[in-house]
Amino acid sequence: MIGFTLPEIRRLLTKLILRVTDAAEHVWAWSRFRRRRQHQARLSHYKRRGYLLT
User: Considering the entire predicted model, what is its pTM?
Assistant: First the structure.
């Protein structure tokens, strides 16, 4: 999984502090899902272009 980006940290803090209609578990689950998908997309991108993945 990729690390937290500044926009992601901002979004998490906003959602968790202001408690916008979503439960905290949902906010964290969405963040984990999003970062996992970004990681998969990055791997696919590099693999398709022939970069070596370590």
Answer: 0.55
